[in-house]
Specification:
Layout (H helix, E strand, L loop, with lengths): L1 E5 L4 H15 L4 E5 L4 E5 L6 E5 L22 E4 L13 E4 L11 E3 L3 E4 L3 H9 L22 H4 L7 H16 L11 E8 L10 H14 L3 H15 L11 H10 L4 E5 L17 H12 L3 E4 L9 H17 L8 E2 L8 H11 L3 E2 L18 E5 L4 E7 L4 E2 H5 L10 H17 L3 E5 L8 H12 L1
Parallel strand pairs: 1-2, 4-8, 9-10, 9-17, 10-11, 12-13, 13-15, 16-17
Antiparallel strand pairs: 1-3, 3-4, 5-6, 7-8, 14-15
Helix pairs in contact: 1-2, 2-4, 5-6, 9-10, 12-13
Length: 467
């Protein structure tokens, strides 16, 4: 049994992060003792051995909590490791220190037979990343009221493509194993979790001549692709004649085929109501076509989830209404699931409101928290974890399943813009996937059913699944 000792400040926050790091990530049993001290100490009740860890974030005066004065000082310090073999899963020789104090000669780790000292504030830094602490302070937002990657510490300090919390956990685990070699950690198994936000289930099934005219105009006038425009007219007529397989967005069976071939289960997240008619799609879940689609997905053993509409991220009442619609339709179609999760439309999310909304309406997990403008580790981890409300200072039942890659982030010109360099797009995605594999984490991939517009994109998707 590990005994965790820490100073009597921010006790609720400390209990939360110890629970996540030690129990959820490492699978260790522990007890907490609150003492008059200035650092963290981990030990055993019948042993003089101890790990001493810096306590920095939680030394913040209460008047500065969730204020700019409590943010990490930039540029960050770096620990230049010359013996990377002691941290086998960390290949980078330079480890950014979000919070911490160096020990001697710029080192942040020292070990003897009975004592390990760690200069990185592992628990405070992990709390900072997992709760998205900085996003409650920094006011930068994009046109959709989203916190952009460019404003994040991870992007500014060049570690967004590294699961820094996982790296810190490995440093902690190395210290634990140094002192107590008999310790066994939780086995973390690499998983690919593929999901599809259903913004447009069918391009033409619910649209009229106006939408067709816009599509053809874009193809012929903007892209100067007359053949594509003629193909769109042909598809529209076929769909209106009842041939749904001709609809370019009707990729559901193809996506399920790919998942099943890879031994995976797809999750399809549906919009159930419209809080912004211009952005929330043109379909209704009560429509017979949508009912049949949900039943078909369920019959093939794949998951159905919620894609709350554009203006729900701050609105618990609308979130509840939309979740109730989803459950009602599923009950009527004899669809039963052990858990319900999903992702916010447009990735609109705010830590202190959105997580609480999802928790309060009874959703099991959220998979929104990834940046729209750049793929990577927004929460600093590839593990799912219990969430926490910084304002109410309460741990939530809701699980966050961090979003690592969204295809729009990779391909769109307004974001990373790799649509014109698909080999580079594949290289970047597979790099992130391999990092998740190395840590036994979850590679969470979002690929819209409506973003498989040509053979090259379909081949990219297949390559990503098989990598």
């Amino acid at each position: 049994m590990i005994i965790v000792r820490f100073p009597p400040r921010y006790i609720v926050e400390k209990r939360y992060i110890v629970e996540v790091i030690l129990r959820e990530f490492l699978g260790l049993q522990f007890e907490v003792l609150i003492e008059s001290r200035t650092n963290w100490a981990l030990g055993e009740s019948n042993s003089d051995k101890a790990i001493i860890i810096q306590d920095c974030l939680f030394q913040t005066p209460s008047t500065d909590w969730l204020k700019s004065n409590s943010l990490p000082k930039q540029p960050l310090k770096h620990w230049f490791v010359d013996k990377t073999d002691i941290f086998r899963k960390i290949k980078n020789q330079s480890i950014p220190v979000i919070f911490g104090k160096s020990l001697e000669r710029g080192y942040f780790y020292q070990a003897t037979e009975d004592l390990v000292r760690i200069g990185i504030d592992i628990f405070g830094s992990a709390f900072f990343m997992l709760t998205r602490y900085e996003e409650s302070i920094k006011r930068t937002r994009d046109q959709f009221d989203r916190f952009p990657a460019s404003a994040s510490l991870a992007h500014q300090e060049n570690f967004l493509s590294r699961p820094i919390v996982n790296e810190y956990v490995e440093i902690l685990w190395t210290g634990l194993k140094t002192l107590w070699p008999q310790l066994k950690r939780k086995s973390q198994t690499f998983k690919v979790q593929v999901s599809h936000d259903v913004d447009i289930p069918y391009r033409y099934a619910f649209s009229g001549l106006h939408q067709l005219g816009r599509d053809v105009a874009v193809s012929c006038l903007k892209r100067r692709n007359i053949q594509q425009g003629l193909s769109q007219i042909s598809s529209w007529h076929k769909v209106k004649s009842g041939l749904l397989h001709a609809d370019p967005c009707n990729t559901f069976d193809w996506l399920m085929d790919q998942s099943e071939s890879a031994g995976l289960k797809s999750s399809f997240y549906f919009i159930t109501d419209h809080s912004d008619n211009s952005r929330d799609g043109d379909y209704h879940l009560y429509h017979p076509l949508m009912r049949r689609l949900l039943s078909h997905i369920h019959s093939r053993g794949h998951e159905i989830g919620l894609h709350p509409s554009f203006n729900t991220y701050l609105d618990v009442f609308q979130t509840r209404k939309e979740f109730e619609i989803l459950k009602r339709v599923c009950v009527e179609e004899s669809i039963d699931q052990s858990e319900w999760g999903g992702r916010q439309h447009y990735l609109r999310w705010r830590s202190t409101e959105t997580w609480q909304n999802w928790n309060d309406v009874g959703l099991s997990y959220d998979s929104t928290v990834g940046f729209a403008d750049f793929s990577g580790f927004r929460c600093g981890t590839c593990y799912e974890f219990s969430t926490y409300n910084l304002r109410t200072r309460k741990a939530l039942k809701l699980i966050e399943r961090p979003l690592i890659v969204m295809e729009c982030s990779i391909l769109d010109d307004r974001y990373m813009g790799l649509n014109h360099d698909l080999p580079q797009a594949f290289s970047h995605i597979s790099m992130l996937k391999n990092i998740c594999r190395k840590f036994g984490g979850n590679f969470t991939l979002l690929w819209h059913n409506s973003r498989l517009e040509n053979l090259e994109i379909k081949e990219l998707y297949q390559q990503v699944l098989s990598a």
